[in-house]
Amino acid sequence: MGIACALGAGMLWGLVFVVPLLLPEYPPAMLSFGRYFGFGLIALLLAWSDRARLSRLQRQDWRMAFELALVGNILYYLFLASAIQLAGAPLPTMLIGTLPIIIAIVANFGSAALPWRRLLPSLTAIAIGIALVNRHEMTVLGGQRSADDYLRGALLAMAAVAAWTWYPVRNSSWLRQRPQIGSGTWALAQGLTTLPLAAVGMAAAGVWPDDRFDYPLGPQPMRYVGLMLTLGFCASWLGTLLWNRASQLLPTALSGQLIVFETVAAFAYAFIWRGSLPGGSALLGIGLLLAGVLLGVRAFRGA
């Protein structure tokens, strides 16, 4: 069940890599704040049905939900959307794809959940898979961006990696300390604390507008609103709910590796959007990514 929840979350989160390509005229700030404003509105609508459990959350729970919302939601997607628009999807996807390795290493340092010799095969397979897939992608799309854009995009993607390394480790740790909090309730709490952050961000974007952007809804208002609500519901609320459940059911070092599903989904959606099939090296790389996950699952089940 935990692996199925992580798979579902990864498939939903993969959508966030395509939307900046579908809305290239929109500043990254409007993509980030728009997505999480939609998430917050959805959480607000759903909160009434879960009001009894939400009322039992303590002050420290709301403080933690606010921190997770700021770092894991607003800042993460602001960095990621900026990186994708500067460098295209492959480079940021490659760097975000290192998250399974980084999170597993960080989590294993913190908990010593598994001997390193048992964790190494899965991490190695994931690393080689990521390298193969992105080598193919960089060959296909090389030369379409300037070196300066690639560099700035890489730096912003690494900032996104830092934000999302912190988020699942901290989120999982908090849920283990507070097992009475349901995954759906915790997803709503993060959505409710995200709403004021996103509202302030969108208001600030109006105070200091980009002259090339028609604030607030831009050149394709219906498409923008539709995609932001889709991301808010699917990637943010439902994805967070599924990930919270996976975090409660799985060791952090294993759930960290399962973020590889997001990378695989992101590449699949990119190929669909591009209307092309992956090459042989990309298929081999995707196979290694999945093999690494299976090796990780086997290692933890044998622990």
General description of the model:
The protein is mainly α and 303 residues long. The chain has one domain. The protein is globular, with a radius of gyration of 19 Å. Helix 7 packs antiparallel against helix 8 and helix 8 runs antiparallel to helix 14. It has 14 helices and no strands. The model has no long low-confidence stretch (mean pLDDT 83).
List the helices and strands and how they pair.
Elements: H1 2-13, H2 19-22, H3 28-47, H4 51-55, H5 59-87, H6 90-96, H7 99-111, H8 116-141, H9 147-177, H10 183-207, H11 221-249, H12 252-257, H13 260-274, H14 280-301
Features:
303 residues, mainly alpha, 14 helices, 81% helix
Question: What is shown here, in short?
Answer:
The protein has 303 residues and is mainly α.
Spans where pLDDT lies below 50 across 5 or more residues: none
Instruction: Describe the sheet with the most strands.
Output: none
Helix content: over 70%
SSE string: HHHHHHHHHHHHHH
Global shape: globular
In whole angstroms, how far apart are the ends? 18 Å
Average predicted local confidence, pLDDT: 83
| Proportion of beta-strand residues | under 5%
Using only CA atoms, what is the Rg? 19 Å
Number of strands: 0
Q: Given the structure, what is the number of helices?
A: 14
Number of domains: 1
- Secondary-structure-based class equals mainly alpha
